């Protein structure tokens, strides 16, 4: 009987021990701190705005020519003299070139589709030369400029109406060195 009593007490103490292990301390509620927002804004990091000069320097020659810093001029049919309404365009081109003394350009002379190949090559060259001479008169050094004639070989638009012909009779400015 003594054995039975000892066994009973051991079992009872084990039950009490395991039961007390099961019980855990009550969970504490997390403390919620309220933070009041003050009128302080997070400063925005602004990228510096690039100047026109910095943008120009970052661009490739292809991109620069697509932007169109230098504008095209147009000619009358079978003529190569600079028209009065094209002179302001050349003045703006010259002003831009004077601000960018390292830039070298190519002036392309173009014609519409009418006339022979040889005639249009000669007319395109005269258009490029007259454009160059006008630019020189505005202070552009001749060593900064090359000319070429494409005649009727590179039309900007295709067609046979007067508007199409007008658009193809032109001198274009291509930047070849920055």
What does this structure look like?
The mean pLDDT is 87. This protein has a domain at 61-177: OmpA-like domain (60s Ribosomal Protein L30, Chain: A). It contains six helices and four strands, in the order αααβαβαβαβ. It has 178 residues and is α+β, with helices and mostly antiparallel strands. Strands 1-4-2-3 form a four-stranded mixed β-sheet, with helices on both faces.
Question: What's this model, at a glance?
Answer:
The chain is built from six helices and four strands, in the order αααβαβαβαβ.
Helix and strand layout, with pairings?
Elements: H1 2-22, H2 52-58, H3 61-67, E1 73-74, H4 87-99, E2 104-110, H5 117-137, E3 145-151, H6 162-168, E4 170-177
Parallel strand pairs: 2-3
Antiparallel strand pairs: 1-4, 2-4
Task: Provide mean pLDDT, rounded.
Answer: 87
Strand line-up in the sheet with most strands = 1-4-2-3
CATH homologous superfamily annotation of the domain at 61-177: OmpA-like domain
CATH top level of the domain at 61-177 is: Alpha Beta
Describe the largest sheet: 4 strands, mixed
Q: Using the CA coordinates, give the radius of gyration.
A: 42 Å
Distance between the termini: 112 Å
């Amino acid at each position: 009987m003594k054995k039975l009593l000892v066994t009973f007490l051991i079992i009872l103490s084990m039950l009490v021990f395991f039961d007390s292990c099961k019980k855990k301390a009550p969970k504490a509620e997390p403390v919620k701190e309220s933070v009041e927002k003050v009128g302080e804004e997070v400063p925005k990091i602004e990228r510096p705005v690039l100047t026109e000069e910095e943008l120009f320097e970052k661009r490739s020659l292809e991109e620069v020519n697509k932007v169109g810093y230098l504008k095209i001029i147009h000619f009358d049919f079978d003529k190569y003299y600079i028209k009065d309404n094209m002179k302001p365009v050349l003045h703006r081109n010259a002003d831009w070139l004077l601000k960018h003394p390292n830039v070298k350009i190519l002036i392309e002379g173009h014609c519409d589709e009418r006339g022979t190949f040889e005639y249009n090559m000669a007319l395109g060259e005269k258009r490029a030369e007259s454009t160059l001479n006008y630019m020189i008169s505005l202070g552009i050094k001749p060593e900064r400029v090359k000319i070429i004639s494409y005649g009727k070989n590179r039309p900007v638009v295709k067609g046979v109406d007067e508007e199409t012909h007008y658009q193809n009779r032109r001198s274009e400015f291509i930047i070849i060195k920055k």
